[in-house]
Amino acid sequence: MNDNFLMACHECDLLHRIDGLPEGGTSVCSRCGAILVSHKRDSLDRSLALTLTGLILFVMANAYPILEIKSGSLYQSTTIIGSVEVLFAGGTWEIGLLVFFTAFFFPLLDLISRLCILIPLKMNKSPWKLSFIVSFMQSINPWGMTDVFMLGVLVSVVKLVKMMKVIPGISLFAFVMLIFVLAGIASAFDPHLAWEKEEKE
Length: 201
Hints:
Layout: E1 4-8, E2 15-19, E3 26-28, E4 35-38, H1 43-63, E5 67-71, E6 74-78, H2 80-89, H3 93-122, H4 130-140, H5 146-160, E7 165-168, H6 170-188, H7 191-200
Antiparallel strand pairs: 1-2, 3-4, 5-6, 5-7
Helix pairs in contact: 1-3, 1-6, 2-3, 3-4
């Protein structure tokens, strides 16, 4: 990787020239020892593969029932969007909006935003509106609380299982896997790849 650019240390503001940092290499500040750049191995390919996997899991998590409930002759199943509709119909639209945005809308936007960065990089092109997309991702990241939503579902399951038979749906398993994949994407992605491509063009 032919890196040749200037970077200020995030800790002490000392300016450094990053020159010829290899894949998997790390550059540290000569004054305070803070990490300046750390190029992750196969970051682009791993991030793209995980993002595509995340989209597949996202579709599965929203296309199939998340829970199936049986009690005698009563049978009920619902999807994530179906649960939002139930919350709106029951008058708790505030909770319905919270579920919609944290479990559906923001995670979807995060995955699409990452594709808008990763696909051009894979094609050796600079991502369109990179600064805007990165800022947008940072602004919505705190709201994509899929893990909190899953915790709420598990608490509900524990309470319901005492009163009736609860069968986890395909969506529930897909959603659990999606949480781990999203964490993997955040760990694998190297944002310096995008910024370096932007600077070269």
